[in-house]
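Recap for those who missed Tuesday's class. We walked through two folding examples back to back. For each one, the amino acid string is listed first and its predicted structure tokens come directly after. Nothing is annotated here on purpose, so try labeling regions yourself before you check the end of the notes.
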Amino acid sequence: MAEPIPPSAPQEPAQPRWPLILGALTGGFFLVALGLGLGWYLFYRPVVNVAVQLPPPPAPPAPAGPDAAQIKALEDQIEKAKAANRDVEAQIAALKERLRADVCTARNPSGAPPAPGAPSGGQKI
């Protein structure tokens, strides 16, 4: 038979490894749980924003009445527009009268001479 190995030094009893393995597994489990919880918190939790909407501001008070200066300015503008319209209508009437009088015919190809008070329409062709 084989000879027994003489003990050279006293050996310490072997420490069990299961506490280290159990600690590593527990720590890993907690790290994974922490990562999942943080991921859920950041990405999947319902976001609730509670905002109170303020009531609309009150409407500004209505003016007490129309401004006399603005009314006067608007009436002056209306009078100027009426005067301009009268001038344009008079010019239209004069041109219509000139068209009735200045018609080219076979007997008079150049048409009748313009009325003395009518504005000239340019060159005749």
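Example two. Treat it independently of the first, because the proteins are unrelated.
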Amino acid sequence: MIYDLIGFGIFIIIIFSVILTLLALFVSRLSLNRNVWLAGFFANILDFFYLPIKSVFFKFSDTRIFDEWMVSLKNTAHRSDFIKTQHRLLLTPHCMRSLECPAPSTRFGIECMSCGKCIFSQMKEDAQKYNYQLHIVAGSSYVRHIIKKRSADGALLVACNYELNKVMRSLKGKNIVTYGVPMLNDGCFDTKVDYDNLLNVMESLKE
């Protein structure tokens, strides 16, 4: 009898988890085009079931779609808190820089020299204008060094949706509010971001 009750309880938990996950996926898809309620709650659900959901997308769809939905949902959840932040990082990928970039690399990222050969010269100026500390990183491992060095409470991220979601998940619980701006294309070099959109985001997130 006791085993029957345990089995029934497990069955109910599984059914409830599946329904909740499907609802969270539906809400995350809606967040691409509109504001949604309980965005933070549903983002936590998707984070908790991230690996099994991603394996389903890998088999039947495209995992990039799942990451795009999650980033959109987290942006909705984090927006109001991000606006309240005072010490902000702008974390961007090195794959957007020129192949002729002369800037040196450090453990905290690429040190832009404002040579004018790529978008980072302008981004460096705009980051200062909007009170962001710009870091051009070659991977998520750099982020760990940066957050140890910088006393930040907010991080605006520019990357592909996979990396955005990865960094958002890694910074969760570290008292750093994240907000993501997806790039226009993936890749290891010659990637681009909609710069007007990035500026609009920084403008909209001003306190």
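Answers for example two:
Residues 2-30 form the longest helix (29 residues).
DSSP finds eight helices and six strands in the chain.
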